[in-house]
Amino acid sequence: MYGNRYIQVLLPLRLKWEPFYSYDAELTPSQLAVGDRVRVEFSGKEYVAVVTVEEASQEAARIGLEKIKPILESLPSLAKISREEMALWRQVAEYYLCTAGEVYKAAYPAGKIEEEEVKARVAKRMEARLERLEDKIARARREDTRARYVAQREEILRSAQNDKVGEGAYEREIPHTGSGGAAIELSDAQEEAYSKIKEVFKTGKPALLRGVTGSGKTEIYLKLAAETLARGKNVLYLVPEIALSRQLEDRIKAIFPDELRVVHSAETLSSRTGTAEFMRDAPYLILGTRSSVFLPHRNLGLIIVDEENDQSYKQDNPAPRYNARETAIMLAGIFKAGIVLGSATPSLESLYNCQAGRFGLIELKERYFQAADSDVEIIDTIAERKKNGMVGDFSRKLIDRINNCLASSGQVAILRERRSYSPALQCEECGTIPKCDRCDAALSLHLREDGSSKLVCHYCGRVREYTGKCPACGGPMKPLGAGTQKIEEEAMRLFPGARIARLDSDSARSRKLETETIKKFADGEIDILVGTRIVAKGFDFSGLSLVAVLQSDSLLGQQDYRADERALHLLEQFRGRCGRRSEKGLLVIQTSQPEHPVYKTLTGDFDGNISTTRFLSERKLFGYPPYSRVINVVFRDRNLPRVELMSRKLADVLKASDSDGLRTIGPYSPAVDKVGGENLRIIRVLLSKDSRLKARKNGLAEAVEAFGKERGYTSHISLDVDPV
Ligand code: ADP
Ligand code: ZN
Question: Which listed residue, 199, 442, 577, 709, has the most CB atoms within 10 A of its CB?
Fold first, then answer.
């Protein structure tokens, strides 16, 4: 066959349809097939596209063959996209109401080879466009015309920024020490859980492993992994954060030195390409964060989702706004692989799925080292203050506990949710609280290494010098509340003999320092570790016997229906960090709301299952997830009156079609309603989980799309399915 052939391709864009292209059969050495990649031009830009239909001449003829552009070139050197990858993209797109092209873009963030090939030309074009725009801006007579050109210029510059590749290489040598020697020996309870998980796998359902902290879930995962690799199949092991998984990494490396590949979310393109090669050539166990679900998997036999309730599995922005837990379930379905979700405190969604019979539940109630649960002590800071029982942010009771602990060579971890010296400042004269002018969030005070101080916006990261004077009236400023830096300072004063360190995203900025701090704490070279919730996550320190939360109230009741559930999870997790071996640990909570049900649950006044039941019945009452599906319609716009108008208008449109199964709330402003100069508004839509859910979901997406198109406003609106 000679002459032109016609194909359809997927572009890495928010594009609902898949355009047609042609190629000359004589000039292309082999016929293009589904999954092959080609370079095409689309609306003035070049892209690396994926062939989705290899024989599209009939459909193409309907549009008119003369309108169809030829591809620029086929790219046989680029990896072919597998059927499974494409299937996953389509499922993710359907569920999260985005396009398969957006998922493609996330999965292949302009791979290295593509970059080199495409970048030069695109850059050239962009320069030309910028030049033309500059010209137009200079000649524009009307102010609004000029503004439009300026906006276009910004758009181009911004997209150039986004195309830049993430930096900060993190590559790891895979040691080739032969087959790992370390053996896996399960306890009886673990063995039983292991068998039950395999039973659940046989039914094709996901297994939820609810195991108290220290029960040794990891060993079970590892045995499942060993068994899977032995069958010649591959393993994906998802964790919320690699930085916190070093001990796990070492453990896996001891058993599967040749199969392990660690994938960091900030991975560079070259190591990503390396990962793809690694996966192609060898049996593998990928240990990675959420985006690892989009690696070019093959022959998957097992997926492990550790700490399945962790919020970091959800990507907020940009699209695809996916949750890796849900995506992993889809991926397991595509490969018919076993999937186990594990946690000490599973998400309500997953527990609900167990109740509904969609997941199989396996419980592990016993700790491996047989230690009893840590005790919980609640300290009422208001009552203490009245009795002169507080020294700064520490209660005298807690100080005693810490001294006792240090005296018996125990270690202490202190959690305070706010990093900074002080989360906010206030003028003593006029009461002004300085805020970020781009984000409408209070600026927090941070101390630098050299003792000088700066003001930082935690939403956009902007830094300003701190003069100590009120920006409005020049009066003196005082700190409002204490962040981790101040707590650390107080601890140094209160416990002068102790070795104290801090772990928060400020000090964790340098990964090396963070690793050192964790290692030092593990080796017993630090007595007191102060930090944000990072100190509550995945560590296993044998010497830790006391953990304390200061100003625990900041964990509760933030205008979010999930705040309590999350607070409970965090506190349970933190409690599990101490007393992991034989001696009993203690969790101290300082709060001004000692009667709060979250604390009652912890102290055992409420049973854990009762609290699950309580949370679930509350959710049911208000029609919140897991009893419904939430979709947020999110508006981002620099123009405040416009975003208010548009969000109200769309809400009106949506409300007009509210029904039993669909409820529209808002628009409302989120707690911080301006970020990076963009005003945020949210319309929340609750959809019943019934047979019409899918139809309603698609109807909503269409209504939003139509609204945006009609007003040329599409780029300001996005949909977030199952927001966190
Ligand atoms: P979880 O993840 O359930 O909180 P871990 O997997 O961290 O628990 O296990 C807690 C501790 O018990 C770890 O120090 C781990 O090495 C140890 N452990 C658990 N199971 C075993 C086992 N079967 N053999 C040896 N050590 C084990
Ligand atoms: Zn800001």
Answer: 577
List 500's β-bridge partners, or say none.
528
What does the pLDDT look like over 299-343, one tens digit per residue?
Answer: 999 999 999 999 899 998 899 999 999 999 999 999 999 999 999
Phi, psi of 130 (to 5 degrees): -60, -40
Residue of minimum CA distance from atom 20 in ligand 1 = 216
Q: Residue 438: nearest ligand to its CA?
A: 2
Q: Which amino acid is at 153?
A: R
The answer to whether the CB of 243 falls within 8 A of the CB of 170 is no
Pocket probe for ligand 1: among 219, 255, 364, 367, the residue whose CB has the most ligand atoms within 8 Å is 219
User: Would you say 53 and 6 are in contact if contact means Cβ atoms under 8 Å apart?
Assistant: no
Number of neighbouring beta carbons within 10 Å of residue 136: 16
Contact 603, 597 (CB under 8 A): no
Of 289, 251, 272, 247, which is closest to residue 515 (Cα–Cα)?
247
- Please give the single-letter amino acid code of residue 5: R
Report which protein residue has its CA nearest ligand 1's atom 18: 216
State in Å: Cα 249 to ligand 1 middle: 14
Q: Is 214 in the pocket of ligand 1 (CB under 6 A)?
A: yes
Q: How far apart are CA 93 and CA 108, in angstroms?
A: 15
Residues 6+ apart with CB under 8 A from 623: 663, 686, 688
- By three-state DSSP, how is residue 385 classified? helix
Q: Which atom of ligand 1 is nearest to the CA of 213?
A: 4
Calculate helix-pair angle for 640-656, 693-710, nearest 10 degrees. Answer: 140
Cross-strand bridge partners of residue 456: 444, 463
Whole-angstrom Cα distance, residue 637 to residue 667?
14
Cα of 576 vs centre of ligand 1, distance in Å, is 12
The rounded distance, in Å, linking the Cα atoms of 489 and 530 is: 10
Please give the Cα distance from 46 to 115 (Å, whole number): 11
Torsion of CA 568, 572, 575, 579, to 10 degrees: 170
Global pTM? 0.81
Closest atom of ligand 1 to 185 CA is: 23
SS3 category, 648:
helix
Query: What's residue 152's pLDDT?
Result: 73
Angle, CA of 40, 716 and 683, to the nearest 5° = 130
Over residues 208-238, the pLDDT tens digits come to 999 988 889 999 999 999 999 999 999 999 9
Q: Is 91 in the pocket of ligand 1 (CB under 6 A)?
A: no
Antiparallel, parallel or unpaired: β 390-391 and 411-415: unpaired
Q: Which residues pair with 394 in a beta bridge?
A: 391
3-class DSSP state for residue 171? coil
* 577 φ/ψ angles, rounded to the nearest 5 degrees: -75, -20
Say how far apart CA 532 and CA 10 lie, in whole Å: 43
Query: Quick one: pLDDT at residue 241?
Result: 83
Beta carbon of 368 within 6 Å of any ligand 1 atom: yes
Question: Which tens digits make up the pLDDT trace of 640-653?
Answer: 999 999 999 999 99
How far away, in angstroms, is 582 Cα from ligand 2 center? 47
Residue 187 CA: which ligand 1 atom is closest? 23
Kindly give the distance from the C-alpha atom of residue 367 to the centroid of ligand 1, in angstroms, as a whole number. Answer: 8
> CB-based burial of residue 175 (10 Å sphere; 0-12 exposed, 13-18 middle, 19+ buried)?
exposed
The token pair that represents 551 in the structure block:
């100003």
- Classify strands 234-238 and 45-53 as parallel, antiparallel or unpaired: unpaired
How many other CB atoms are there within 10 angstroms of residue 536's CB atom?
A: 21
